[in-house]
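Before the break, one more example. Copy the sequence into your notebook; we will annotate it together after we see the structure.
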Amino acid sequence: MEQKTLVLGVIGADVHAVGNRILDYVFSQAGFKVINIGVLASQEEFIRAAIETAADVILVSSLYGHGEIDCRGLREKCQEAGIGDILIYVGGNLVIGKQDFSMVEKRFKDMGFDRVYPPGIMPEVAIMDLHKDLNF
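Here is what the structure looks like once it is written out:
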């Protein structure tokens, strides 16, 4: 079976590296080829890495609460770059303050994200979703 490639990184001015390393390890152990672009990553860096590696998924992480601002327009930039159909997952502390997660999820799905994960979700949930979404 062909290995699936995912681009992993922490978007925006976020420097939360520990979670990023954990996700890299867990997804690698689950059989994915992980292209980890690290922390402080721009939308363009995610897209460039996805194009260069022919990635199947972009997995955006954000822990400092500004994910909604940092992620706005990512789907459109993917479309402009010719990878409009790529799966895009996002997770973490995506907004500031206590907000109903179903509303946060709706806003991100309206922005073109395929999967949206709340803080504290176990990576195994995303792995199961990846297997479903990629028929892998």
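The radius of gyration is 14 Å. DSSP finds six helices and five strands in the chain. Try to locate both features in your own notes.
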